[in-house]
């Protein structure tokens, strides 16, 4: 039995059940991506790039290997063959399918996946971009508490050249958050599941976007967790030339993606994005109470009110 | 010459102090900025580098999965580097699930192993962890001791396999690589001579004036004052300060007879080998 879902504007037909993802709302369209469960054939193509978890072949297909979980062969941006290891849990299989494999699919489909959460505020998308540990998910959760809708967490699939304005596609309304962030936001953790058994981060459903359509990106916030301490929060616009480079450095699975597509295409995509979308840098330090997720979210909302007022 | 010098130690054995000395020394003895170091000595388990070099999210990986891939990370880093690199290590010298050394010998230039009297480590570690002395001594006797992801708000680290104090020391003393073992107490007492040994071992250009200036720039008093003024990003969330006392022999005043006996019974053989009893 196969399941139909709507993910990032794609119709996805999957042998694996994906309870985090919305059912497909555009049933008349063709299937964009097939996810099969089965045994991988022997892969004899020439490998052009490899890391311990990845092999990219000359045709742009990519084998993702997660020891203890399974292998995912991602082809042409439209086909994923999943070969679980014995006793792999469905949850473990999904966590890599909905993050790393999703990112690889976006690379193969010539989109721009960014290491970002995205929220919808007054019908417009704000991207919260940053390296691991920069506080994207925590900030997104705090904004959701203040009335935003979650568009995506961790992987933001963007199309800088979409019709008239750069957009981000909604994925699924679940977030990965650590226990101390949840407690800080006043969210009880007892009923939440862990992203994987043995890991401390929780997986939590939040108020998410109901729409399957993409959102125009209004602002990009680049989160930088300050190494220095005893410094105040800084929220400041960034010059476009600097923005393009920073956004490029925060492409999701960038090292692998550069061997699926090419560096110039990503450079063009990042330049196109920041040409049309203002970028704001946030320097924050978690030891400063003003930089905890809740007051940080308030500071950003206040900043945006000021910008709109101008 | 590509590869790593591993600055290895059980926690609270003076690793940070030695790292700050080195930062100052290579800058001719300049003052160190506690919170904006030149990053001469990065942490070997900083998840940022693991994620970057392996293009993964370490947060999604189980501790044993991270362990499996850390040798690959070090090989990739070494291949990309232009010269020697220095890494702070709290892991014991162990093997991964595949039976290979966590720290690949082919990218190891040498090991600088710092050791400190476990009776003083217990006091400092208890302050760092925010635990009682008894609980800390339990931890130091736990062969399965594995750090959690991070107890500092500022850095994100991979889990590290520490084990007991004795097994940690013996693992590094038995590691098949070029090695210099430094006792924390000798650093405190003899200073210049020991720092000179460190500089020579790391094959850095020797500059006596720079050693003296670096020693002056990184006295405990100077570091404490810097921390009071600017804070220190490596301070644990549970400790009021990172640079606490830094003295040797405080155990005589602060540990009970039972606590001393417990440490000496469990770790006595290694303590005797190192001259602590």
Notable characteristics:
heterodimer, A: 310 residues, alpha+beta, eight-stranded mixed beta sheet, five-stranded mixed beta barrel, 7 helices, 26% helix, 32% strand, globular, B: 277 residues, alpha/beta, five-stranded parallel beta sheet, 12 helices, 5 strands, 45% helix, 10% strand
Report on this structure:
The complex is a heterodimer of chains A (310) and B (277). Chain A is α+β, with helices and mostly antiparallel strands and 310 residues long. Chain A has helices spanning 90-108, 136-145, 179-184, 240-249, 254-257, 263-276, 293-309, and strands at 3-7, 10-14, 33-37, 47-51, 54-57, 62-66, 70-75, 79-84, 112-121, 124-129, 149-152, 155-159, 167-168, 174-177, 193-194, 202-205, 215-225, 234-237, 279-284. In chain A, helix 2 packs across helix 7 and helix 4 packs across helix 6. The longest helix of chain A is centred in the N-terminal third of the chain and has 19 residues, at 90-108. The mean pLDDT of chain A is 92. Chain B is α/β, with parallel strands linked by helices and 277 residues long. Chain B is globular and about 50 Å long. Chain B has a five-stranded parallel sheet, with helices on both faces. The interface between A and B is medium-sized, with 33 and 29 residues.
Radius of gyration of chain B: 18 Å
Number of helices of chain B: 12
Task: Please trace the helix and strand order of chain B, writing H or E for each element.
Answer: EHEHHEEHHHEHHHHHH
| CA-based shape of chain A | globular
The main pleated sheet of chain B reads as: 5 strands, parallel
Count of beta strands of chain B: 5
Total DSSP E strands of chain A? 19
Elements of chain A, N to C (H/E): EEEEEEEEHEEHEEEEHEEEEHHHEH
Main-sheet strand order of chain A equals: 1-2-3-8-7-6-5-4
Tell me the number of helical segments of chain A per DSSP (H or I, 4 or more residues long).
7
Q: What percentage of amino acids of chain B are in beta strands? A: 5-15%
Derived structural class of chain A: alpha+beta
Average pLDDT of chain A, rounded to a whole number, is 92
Largest interface pair: A-B, 33 and 29 residues
> What percent of residues of chain B adopt helix (DSSP H or I)?
40-55%
User: Please, what is the average pLDDT of chain B?
Assistant: 90
């Amino acid at each position: 039995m196969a399941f139909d879902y709507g993910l990032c504007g794609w119709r996805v037909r999957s042998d694996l059940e994906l309870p985090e993802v919305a059912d497909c709302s555009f049933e008349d369209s063709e299937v964009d991506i097939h996810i099969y469960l089965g045994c991988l054939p022997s892969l004899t193509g020439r490998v052009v790039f490899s890391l311990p978890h990845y092999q990219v072949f000359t045709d742009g297909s990519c084998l993702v290997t997660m020891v203890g979980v399974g292998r995912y062969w991602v082809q042409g941006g439209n086909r994923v063959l999943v070969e679980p290891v014995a006793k792999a849990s469905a949850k473990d299989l999904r966590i890599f399918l909905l993050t790393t494999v999703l990112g690889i699919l976006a690379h193969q489909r010539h989109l721009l996946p960014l290491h970002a959460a995205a929220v919808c505020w007054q019908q417009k998308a704000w991207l919260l971009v940053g390296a691991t540990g920069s506080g994207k998910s925590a900030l997104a959760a705090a904004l959701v508490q203040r009335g935003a809708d979650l568009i995506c967490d961790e992987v933001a699939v963007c199309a800088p050249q979409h019709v008239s304005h750069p957009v981000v596609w909604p994925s699924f309304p679940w977030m990965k958050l650590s226990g101390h962030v949840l407690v800080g936001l006043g969210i009880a953790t007892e009923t939440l599941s862990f992203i994987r058994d043995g890991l401390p981060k929780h997986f939590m459903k939040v108020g998410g976007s109901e729409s399957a359509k993409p959102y125009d990106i209004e602002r990009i916030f680049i989160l930088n967790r300050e190494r220095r301490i005893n410094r105040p929060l800084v929220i400041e616009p960034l010059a476009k030339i600097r923005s393009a480079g920073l956004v490029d450095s925060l492409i999701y699975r960038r090292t692998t993606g550069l061997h699926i597509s090419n560096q110039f295409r990503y450079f063009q995509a990042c330049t196109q994005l920041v040409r049309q979308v203002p970028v704001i840098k946030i320097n924050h330090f978690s030891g400063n109470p003003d930089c905890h997720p809740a007051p940080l979210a308030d500071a950003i909302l206040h900043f945006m009110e000021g910008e709109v007022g101008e | 010459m590509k590869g790593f010098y591993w600055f290895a130690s059980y926690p609270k054995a003076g690793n940070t102090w030695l790292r700050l000395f080195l930062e100052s020394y290579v800058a001719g003895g300049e003052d160190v900025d506690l919170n904006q170091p030149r990053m001469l000595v990065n942490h070997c388990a900083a998840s940022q580098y693991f994620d970057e070099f392996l293009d993964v999210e370490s947060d999604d990986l189980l501790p044993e999965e991270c362990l499996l891939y850390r040798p690959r990370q070090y090989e990739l880093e070494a291949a990309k580097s232009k010269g020697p690199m220095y890494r702070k290590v709290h892991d014991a010298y162990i093997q991964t699930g595949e039976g290979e050394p966590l720290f690949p010998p082919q990218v190891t230039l040498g090991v600088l192993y710092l050791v400190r009297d476990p009776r003083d480590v217990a006091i400092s570690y208890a302050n760092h962890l925010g635990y009682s002395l008894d609980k800390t001594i339990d931890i130091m006797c736990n062969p399965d001791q594995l750090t959690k992801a991070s107890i500092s708000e500022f850095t994100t680290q991979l889990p590290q396999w520490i084990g007991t104090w004795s097994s940690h020391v013996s693992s590094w003393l038995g590691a098949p690589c070029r090695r210099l073992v430094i006792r924390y107490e000798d650093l405190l007492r003899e200073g210049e001579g020991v720092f000179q040994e460190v500089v020579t071992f790391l094959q850095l250009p020797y500059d006596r004036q720079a050693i003296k200036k670096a020693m002056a720039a990184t006295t405990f008093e100077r570091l404490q004052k810097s921390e009071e003024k600017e804070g220190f990003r490596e301070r644990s969330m549970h400790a009021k300060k990172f640079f606490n006392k830094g003295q040797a022999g405080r155990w005589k005043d602060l540990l009970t007879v039972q606590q001393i006996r417990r440490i000496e019974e469990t770790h006595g053989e290694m303590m005797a080998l190192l001259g602590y009893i």
